[in-house]
């Protein structure tokens, strides 16, 4: 048999996140989320055979860089800082960052009130980069966003900064009225599928994204996960 595999299709390793609701997460061993559904549809259109590999965000970034996974779909923001190592697909989601604080905090009303405050966020995320630029803020960062939210609930930090949709999910699901969102969404961000520089899959992925946008699949999935 030729090295090309004689028609045997290779399996593309696609990294997802363990805990980035409602985009990708695992629940009782099941892989779920808007991006899991979206990826399945993209891969079908693009004729990509794949295997999903769940891990934490930091590990995911390393794995894409090293080639341990071929691609990742996990709320990855298109950022200039990562462009040296990564190649992005066309973006499929528009979002941004938000500030969260305790419901009874009357001092923090927006991101402008975070100087000298203790701010929790996720290691290596775009929110982490943003937080690092706030004058005098003390940053506490965690590899799992569940720990960021626990700090907020326990009132051991003043505020947190993270991706808007994930924060929104937490407020609805687990915050139990103890945490609120303050101010406007900021730092416009777009999510895209990511792979190593010069990887051979992004072209196919882009065709898949275009196809699911055109035939209404994207819209149906968006409505299912985010409402009308
Ligand atoms: N959008 C953020 C980033 O790309 C966070 C992603 C995540 O935690 N999965 O850094």
Task: Write up what this structure looks like.
Helix content is 31%, strand content 30%. The chain is α/β, with parallel strands linked by helices and 228 residues long. It folds into two domains: 11-92 and 192-226, Periplasmic binding protein-like II (D-Maltodextrin-Binding Protein, domain 2, 3-Layer(aba) Sandwich); 96-189, D-Maltodextrin-Binding Protein, domain 2 (3-Layer(aba) Sandwich). A five-stranded mixed sheet has the order 5-1-6-13-7, with helices on both faces. The chain has a five-stranded mixed sheet with strand order 10-9-11-8-12. β3 (24-27) and β4 form a beta hairpin. The chain is globular. Bound molecules: glutamine (GLN). Residues 17, 20, 57, 74-77, 122, 125-126, 163 line the site of glutamine.
* Structural domains: how many: 2
Radius of gyration: 19 Å
Please provide the count of β strands: 13
Shape: globular
- Assign a percent range to the helix content: 25-40%
Strand content: 25-35%
CATH level-1 class of the largest domain? Alpha Beta
Provide the CATH topology of the largest domain. D-Maltodextrin-Binding Protein, domain 2
């Amino acid at each position: 048999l030729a090295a090309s595999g004689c028609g045997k299709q290779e399996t593309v390793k696609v990294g997802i996140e363990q805990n980035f609701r409602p985009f990708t997460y695992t629940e009782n061993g099941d892989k779920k989320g808007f991006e899991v559904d979206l990826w399945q549809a993209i891969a079908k259109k693009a004729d990509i055979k794949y295997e999903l590999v769940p891990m934490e965000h930091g590990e995911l970034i390393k794995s894409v860089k090293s080639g341990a996974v071929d691609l990742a779909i996990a709320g990855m923001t298109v950022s200039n800082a990562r462009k040296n190592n990564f190649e992005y697909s066309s973006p499929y989601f528009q979002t941004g960052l938000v500030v969260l604080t305790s419901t009874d905090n009357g001092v923090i009303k927006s991101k402008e009130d975070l100087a000298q405050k203790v701010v929790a966020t996720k290691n290596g995320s775009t929110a982490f980069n943003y937080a690092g630029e706030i004058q005098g803020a003390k940053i506490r960062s965690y590899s799992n966003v569940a720990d960021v939210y626990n700090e907020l609930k326990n009132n051991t930090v003043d505020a947190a900064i993270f991706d808007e949709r994930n924060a929104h999910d937490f407020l609805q699901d687990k915050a139990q009225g103890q945490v609120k969102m303050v101010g406007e969404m900021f730092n416009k961000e777009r999510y895209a599928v990511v792979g190593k520089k010069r990887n051979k899959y992004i072209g196919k992925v882009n065709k898949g994204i275009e196809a699911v946008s055109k035939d209404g699949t994207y819209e149906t999935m968006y409505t299912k996960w985010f409402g009308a």
